[in-house]
Amino acid sequence: MNKNISTSYRKLVVGLALTLGLTACGDGSNGGSAPSGTPVSEGQIEANNIAFYKNQVGYLPAQQKLIVVRTDTPVEYKVRNMNTAETVFTSVTSLPAYWSLADETVSVADVSSITAAGQYRLELTDSDDYTAFNVSLERVEAMHDASIKAFYYNRASLALDPAFAGKWQREAGHPDTYVLNLNDPNQILSSPKGWYDAGDYNKYIVNSGISTYTLMRAYLDFPAFYGERTWNIPESSNSRPDLLDEVSWNLDWMLTMQDTDGGVFHKLTTLNFAPDVMPAAANEQRYVVDKGTAATLNFAGVMATAARVYPDMAGTYLSAAEEAWQWAITHPHIPFVNPENVATGEYGDNEFNDEFAWAAAELYLTTGNQDYLTTMDNNLGPVSTPGWSNSMGLAYLSLLSSEGQSDLSNQRYAALKARFLDYATKLAEQSQSSPFRVAMTRHDFVWGSNGVAMNHAMMLAKAFELSKDKAYLEAMTALIDYVSGKNPTGYSFVTGHGEQTPMFIHHRQSHADDIAEPVPGFLAGGPQNGQQDNCTYSSSLPATSYLDDWCSYSTNEVTINWNAPLVYSVAASLNFNR
Ligand code: G3I
Ligand code: 9MR
After folding, report:
1. In what order do the strands lie in the sheet with 104-110?
2. How far apart are CA 351 and CA 344, in angstroms?
3. Which ligand 1 atom sits closest to the C-alpha of 532?
4. Which terminus of the chain, N or C, has fewer Cβ atoms within 10 Å?
5. How many CA atoms lie within 13 A of 83 on its CB side?
6. Angle, CA of 211, 371 and 400, to the nearest 5°
7. Is the predicted pLDDT of residue 42 greater than 80, yes or no?
């Protein structure tokens, strides 16, 4: 176990400790806990190995509240309101269960009956172990705002003014007004703006596209919420919702990536990853590289959606989408592979049914043209959780959000909905039967597992919206709790939000800026045991192989496509808090 892990890890040494009157209990602080693996010397009995895994940010008043307790027998506990010192209720944790992905035996304290905002403490009856937790709308709102503001911090071609960026102010980087086509030295492009993908400074259409769509989905699904919320970005004083201003920054860039024949370049990149310096100091030549089917269809899906979200720009976005679509129809299978001299992110994909289905769904919803629906039918596969290489789920999300706004037949709508809810039911069942009460199975622990968690949460949010079945809402809430600390690493994975949060994310700005705290609001990639970066990990298990170190780009990088579903899910959670 990492020595920084924030748990109340207690080895009660019966006899000696009692005689000396020693106590070793704790609450999320780093002190006072014996590191894992500390040998218990002869004659000492290890009586207690309690740890608490909880949402470190805050539980919403009207929603499920679970705290995972490491113990191999059920334990009795009471919950006290810290403001009044009053005991609110007494209960006992569930039957313990073993989670092999983390090698932990845990049981669950369900404190959902608490609905009043405040600070509380869960205290075990038979020992001094306790943990404190918050029930708070404001703390969750703050995390939401930070997670969307993270996109502003990752804007290319812009100086971050202290009025908006505070101590994370910085000079502009990457004007991208002189970009070369790697395949055609005579083609010079101006391709400014957009968000940096991640901890690196490159801009990749596929990953940027799913992130942009997800944020537009959030706007379309929660328009009243976004009509009111603001998070201090340069455009906050205009009349447009901040979310639409943020998304525009990337749409403007994406438009520049379309070639005159309608095809879209896969990425805008340096030949190698930049050194670990601030954006303004990373000024190697940038190139656009290869047009491909995935990037072009992804672009078509995003632009067709944008045409519905930005009525004043509908003409521009729709014609860009249609031109991209035409290119893809005539180039239906051009996978992207990094050229030999390019070493940056590949985002390679050679299955295009999902991109065809999604782009066709968006074009149908925007134009009403039935031909798109036919192509969609020919390509639509089973429901799955979206990710950068898999946009099938996005087609379902959009079509199912269109009730009453499209001429989709009732029968077709009902069939799509049934398939969607079947999928969400599997996620909810996984959550209910998981020891940590989280819909994360072995195959979800890939590079960016926290992004997988948040994309699952987005699917569950939609399932709840469509059905009002609380099982989906609870599974969604449990996933948000998971990334906020209710996981076996003990980290709340959103920088700056929680008691123990990543301090050394693989994010060049955060590493090079000489500021102790990383840029706030970013979701770290999360545990997975591929260990592709060859750093030294203290666990090789899927759910605990995580390292809060710059070295660990396979578990501790941040990227826009993991933050976007975090934004969506937390927005959904706030909107469903009734
Ligand atoms: O395709 C295989 C699949 O067949 C196999 O079953 C599976 C088993 O793990 O692996 C699959 O390949 C994985 C691939 O993603 C596709 O999912 C690789 O193992 C895995 O290493 C790879 O990770 C990607 C990583 O780049 C390395 O290419 C991440 O998904 C992707 O999010 C990440 O993206 C990077 C960009 O390249 C650069 N910018 C930062 C960003 C985040 O780290
Ligand atoms: O810093 C790079 C990160 O943004 C990428 O996601 C990652 C995976 O492709 O690669 C990182 O760069 C590493 C490179 O691949 C290998 N040498 C070490 C680099 C990190 O310092």
Report:
1. 51-53, 66-70, 104-110, 97-99
2. 21
3. 21
4. C
5. 7
6. 45
7. no
Cβ neighbours, 10 Å, residue 472: 26
pLDDT beyond 50 at 246: yes
- To test the pocket of ligand 2, the residue of 273, 344, 547 to mutate (highest count of ligand atoms within 8 Å of its CB) is 273
The residue whose C-alpha atom lies closest to atom 3 belonging to ligand 1 is 446
Q: 265-269 and 97-99 as β-strands: parallel, antiparallel, unpaired? A: unpaired
Cα 84 to ligand 1 centre (Å): 50
49 pLDDT tier (thresholds 50, 70, 90):
confident
Query: Which of 64, 67, 66 lies closest to 52, judged by CA?
Result: 67
Which regions of 156-207 does DSSP assign to beta strands (E)? 179-181, 184-189, 203-204
- How, if at all, do strands 179-181 and 287-291 pair? parallel
Q: How confident is the model at residue 577 (pLDDT cuts 50, 70, 90)?
A: confident
Closest CA to 200 of 428, 507, 424: 507
Q: Which residue do the tokens 């957009």 mark?
A: 194
Dist. CA 253–CA 95, nearest whole Å:
53
Distance 395 CA to ligand 2 centre (A): 32
| Lateral strand order in the sheet of 184-189 | 184-189, 179-181, 287-291, 265-269, 203-204
Residue 13, token pair as written in the block: 């040494």
Q: Tokens for 15, please give them.
A: 């006899």
> Which pLDDT band, with edges at 50, 70 and 90, does 22 fall under?
very low
In the predicted structure, residue 331 carries a pLDDT above the cut 90: yes
* Residue type present at position 265: F
Q: What is the reported pTM?
A: 0.93
Which tops the pLDDT comparison, 269 or 405?
269
Catalytic residues: 200, 506, 548, 557
> Cα 159 from chain centroid?
25
Supply φ then ψ for residue 354, to 5 degrees: -65, -40
Average per-residue pLDDT for the chain:
92
Ligand 2: lining residues by beta carbon, under 6 Å: 198-200, 273, 345, 553, 557
The band of 21, judged by pLDDT with boundaries at 50, 70 and 90, is very low
| 129 Cβ below 6 A of ligand 1 | no
Q: How far apart are CA 255 and CA 155, in angstroms?
A: 16
Which band of pLDDT confidence, cut at 50, 70 and 90, is reported for residue 263? very high
In sequence order, what E strands does 145-201 have?
Answer: 179-181, 184-189
Q: What pLDDT is attached to residue 27?
A: 40
